[in-house]
Structure formats: structure tokens, C-alpha cells
Design goal:
Elements: H1 3-13, E1 22-28, H2 29-39, E2 43-49, H3 62-69, E3 73-76, H4 85-92, E4 98-100, E5 109-110, E6 113-114, H5 122-139, H6 144-170, E7 178-180, H7 187-193, E8 196-198, H8 211-223, E9 228-232, H9 237-247, E10 250-255, H10 270-285
Parallel strand pairs: 1-2, 1-3, 3-4, 7-8, 7-9, 9-10
Antiparallel strand pairs: 5-6
Helix pairs in contact: 2-5, 3-4, 5-6, 6-10, 8-9
Bound molecules: zinc ion.
Length: 287
């Protein structure tokens, strides 16, 4: 084949140029995964709080302001999760529409605040994905059909995941469906799937429990005969270890709540995160 033809074919087959793709910024890793599933190669995605980092206490960098200034769509969780965002938005001078992926979800209350961890119910994850699909489609109408097709496929996977979670939790004897976890990240999971999560910390990873809190929790674990305590990937494990040691409850492994892992970890995607958590719960709580 002649060289010029090879070059022409190579150009036709090459992926979209960066300039043709929609610049999307997602605030944290779970949203990034949803955007990737809907947007595929038609979006140029940047995730501000990457795998293994804590979105509650994130400290934005100067380069984040530049990223936001260049964004065409900004996808956030909302419900107060990204407390650091308003200042960053202001300093960036960015004009991209900011879309709260939780729009339309009935928020649970945690004290006087809304509980932001809505993605832990797979039914809510479907709302996130629909909101992201609509945001991408209105920012890039020419690709709307592409985004809708991909969203439809991914929504079907979420449906299947939701059924899978219900079946798995259904195998746990009902009197054993209770665990201790380190921060209140599983309220939506608890309501959706019927497992009681008792959390020694408040909703945010910022708060430290007092000695009195710990004594109260230990009393609670023993009184309610809670079979297992769980670690969370971003929290201080010493507390849970101490509760387990003093109550005889089993340590059920690590649950992922607020962050995905990198490719090599146990939860590189939302689907993998939910499956990992459900497996950890069912194996710790089975009789
Ligand atoms: Zn959290």
C-alpha cells in the first residue's frame, strides 16, 4: 500500500481528537466512573478527587482551578459532599454548567444535614447516570444518541446489580443483618437493602469519636449482638479494631464507600465496589 494511503487510513481510524471531545470534570472517583460509562471516548474526563482520596476533606490545588476553567460540564454529587467546591468554582472563573448528579433523589437526613452518600443505593446510582446522560447530551447535542445508547446499556447493568445485591442480602439470616462501620456512609444502602449499619463516627470523616462515644458503641455492639465490624478504606482502622477486640465481634474486612481504588485494587469501578462490599457483608454475616 502506498504511504499516503496508509496515512489517510490511519487518520480515519484514529480516535477522536481531544478538541472534538466534551471536556467533563467530575468531582470524585465514583462520579468519574459513571461519566466514563456514559461518555466513553466522546468525553475528555478529569476527576478532581481521584481513587483512594477523601472527597470530604479535599484541598483543591491551583491546577484544579485551571481544570474547572476549561470544563464544559462539571458533574458534582451535591447534598453537601463537596464543601470545598464553591470557593474553587469562584476562584476558577469557570462558566461550565454545574450538574448535581443527585438531583431528583430524596435525600436521607443525617442530623440536621442531608446525607450525601446516595450512590450507595444502586437505584440511586441509576438516577445519577440518567442525570449525567442528560447533562452530556445537552452539552454536546450531536453526541446525544451515543450517550443515550451507552447509558441504556449501563443502566441495564445497574438493574442486574441491584437484583444481585437483593438476592445476596436475602441469604443472610434477618437477625444477623447488622454491622458496625466507621462512618455513616451506608445509610442509603441500609434503607435500600435492609442491613443496619451502626457507625461510630458522624457523617463526615472529619470528626473524631470521644472516649464516651467509644464506650457507647461497645455497649451497643454487645447489647445488640452485632456479629461483625467493618473497616472502611479511608478511615482510621484502630477504632474498629478496638471495638472488635473488646466485644468479640468479627472484623468483616474493608468496605469501600467514598472512593474507588486504582485498577489494581478491589474496587476500580462502581460495579466492582458494590460487589466487593456485598461479598464482604455476606461472608461476615452468614451463619
Ligand atoms: Zn463519606
Amino acid at each position: 500500500m502506498q504511504l499516503w494511503l496508509c496515512l489517510a487510513l490511519a487518520m480515519l481510524a484514529s480516535p477522536l481528537q481531544a478538541a472534538d471531545r466534551l471536556n467533563v470534570v467530575a468531582s470524585f472517583s465514583v462520579l468519574g466512573d459513571f461519566v466514563r460509562n456514559v461518555g466513553g471516548e466522546r468525553v475528555n474526563l478529569t476527576v478532581l478527587v481521584g481513587p483512594g482520596s477523601d472527597v470530604h476533606v479535599y484541598a483543591p490545588t491551583p491546577s484544579d482551578a485551571k481544570t474547572i476553567a476549561a470544563a464544559q460540564v462539571l458533574i458534582i454529587n451535591g447534598l453537601g459532599l463537596e464543601g470545598w467546591l464553591p470557593r474553587l468554582l469562584q476562584s476558577s472563573g469557570g462558566k461550565a454548567p454545574t450538574i448535581a448528579a443527585t438531583a431528583g433523589i430524596a435525600a436521607l437526613k443525617a442530623g440536621s444535614d442531608s446525607d450525601p452518600h446516595a450512590w450507595q443505593s444502586v437505584a440511586n446510582a441509576r438516577v445519577y447516570v440518567a442525570n449525567i446522560r442528560d447533562a452530556l447530551a445537552s452539552a454536546a447535542p450531536a453526541d446525544a444518541g451515543f450517550f443515550r445508547d451507552r447509558a441504556e446499556r449501563y443502566l441495564a447493568e445497574l438493574d442486574a446489580l441491584d437484583r444481585e445485591v437483593r438476592e445476596a442480602i436475602g441469604t443472610i439470616p434477618s437477625e444477623r443483618r447488622k454491622v458496625i462501620s466507621t462512618h455513616d456512609a451506608f445509610g442509603y444502602f441500609a434503607v435500600a437493602y435492609g442491613i443496619a449499619f451502626i457507625a461510630p463516627l458522624g457523617v463526615s470523616t472529619e470528626t473524631e469519636p470521644s472516649a464516651r462515644d467509644i464506650a457507647r458503641i461497645i455497649g451497643q455492639v454487645m447489647g445488640a449482638r452485632i456479629p461483625a465490624v467493618f473497616l472502611e478504606s479511608l478511615s482510621d482502622d484502630r477504632l474498629v479494631g478496638r471495638i472488635a477486640a473488646e466485644t468479640g465481634a468479627k472484623i468483616g474486612g474493608t468496605l469501600f464507600s467514598d472512593s474507588l481504588t486504582d485498577e489494581k485494587g478491589d474496587a476500580p469501578t462502581y460495579l466492582a465496589m458494590v460487589r466487593h462490599n456485598v461479598k464482604a457483608l455476606t461472608s461476615a454475616l452468614a451463619r
